[in-house]
Amino acid sequence: MNADHNNPEEKKFASLFARLDKDAAPVDAELKEKLRRQSAEVFAECNLPGKKIEPPRRRNRMYVLALRGLAATVTAVLVATGLWLGNNSPDGSFSLGSALESVAVADTIEMEITRDGAAEKIWVQGRDRLRWDSADGTYRIAHGQTVWDIDEKANRATSPKSTLLGDDKSGVVCWRW
Q1: How many domains does the chain contain in total?
Q2: In terms of domains, do 30 and 78 share one?
Q3: Residues 13-53: tens digit of each pLDDT
Q4: 78/126 same-domain check
Q5: What residues does 151 pair with on adjacent strands?
Q6: What DSSP string runs through 66-107?
Q7: 63 and 41, same domain (yes or no)
Q8: What is the Cα 100 distance to its own chain's centre?
Q9: H or E element in which residue 132 lies
Q10: pLDDT digit string (tens) for 134-173?
């Protein structure tokens, strides 16, 4: 507390701490003086004339962000190059037949189709499971011969007759949709 100031809050604190001082242990004058000397010595060592204090080195934040961006760009280019080179056959051609063979053996397929400028997503698992998200926010879920048309905005789910999957379980027949 500062005795030089005539501040009402200082008086309140003084009365509060005066009550606390009654129960507090007495101050050890020797320990207090020893700590005062030690802190003065450390302070004097740090402020010797001719001793230059180096501030901690900080990297410029923009420099770090630029390096991260450069690393991400290089990584993206390398991944894209690897994918482009990996998907081509040795003679440089890529056939529809090889793509369809890959689709035929896949456990799960994700497709995106565009009709009248609106994108729709289709997920197929195995020969009897499907989800078709339409551009208008509705979706269809099929499992075997059971199909559900779901419109969450209208809070409606219907189950029409399925023409989505072939009777012989040959897989999804999208043109029957």
Answers
A1: 3
A2: no
A3: 787 777 776 777 777 889 999 999 998 888 877 766 666 66
A4: no
A5: 156
A6: HHHHHHHHHHHHHHHHHHHHHHS-TTS---HHHHHHHHHH-S
A7: no
A8: 35
A9: strand 129-133
A10: 888 899 888 878 888 889 888 888 888 765 555 555 555 5
